[in-house]
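Hi L., both proteins are below.
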Amino acid sequence: MKRFLLGALLMIGTAALAAEHGGHEASGEIPWGTIGIQAFNVGLLVAVLFYLLRTMVIEHFKGRRQLYTELVERAEAAKKAAEKSHREIAQKLNELQSTADQSLKTAQAEAAAMKQKLAAEAQTLAKKLEEDAKRSVDVEIEKAKAQLRGELLTEALVASREALKKTVGSTESQRLQTEFADKIQVVGQ
């Protein structure tokens, strides 16, 4: 409706201007009456346009202002979120850096402790193996001694029997064998 009224006023104003200009010839005078009417028409046109378009222009600029305000708020929210994210990332990066340094120091300390532990275990194992070897050698020596004693006793018995058979009679031989056996048992214990 407002557009229709606006169009009608424009046509009336244009027609009025055209009717006024129709029959004048160029003379040296300034047509103040015509200028006044045209100024009145332009003023009326501006007033009517202002009256009719005022609400539309206000609504248009309110909408634009609201849109710009909304866009600014979104941009500020995005900026704040980006700054927060940047701070969090920087904080995590700092934590990772300090953790990395700490982890490296901890790993070096653990490696040194592990090295010392392994060296101590190796020494303990070497001592144990040495002790086991000494025990094995001692056992083998005792076995060899016992075997040698047994062999020597056996050979001594055989040699003494033969010598006794040759030199002594059977009754005396029996008595000597018994004594010899008793003495050997005492020595063997």
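That was the first. Here is the second:
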Amino acid sequence: MAPLLEKTGGDIVKKIGAVYLFELRASKESEPVFFTIDLKNGNGKITKGKEGKPDTTFVMFDDDFIALSQGKLNPQQAFMTGKMKIKGNMAKAMKFTPDILPKDAKL
């Protein structure tokens, strides 16, 4: 996602205007890994770890996040089936759609 932000980050920031925190785990027992995606300031930025105060936090397993980013998992279906939990501002969560993620996303 970082190369995408370098190219078109300003446009994405104007469209989204939110800071997201992703809490990802390999399994239920494993320690979470955090990624902050700032789509509110400048050209946007992705940081490993927690940075600032997120508007919305997404909690998922690694495999589900990859499936979501590759378009193999529908976000609404993921939420309704419990594969994705959302904390915080739901209106801002709805702005984070898979079409802003690059199709070859990797952890």
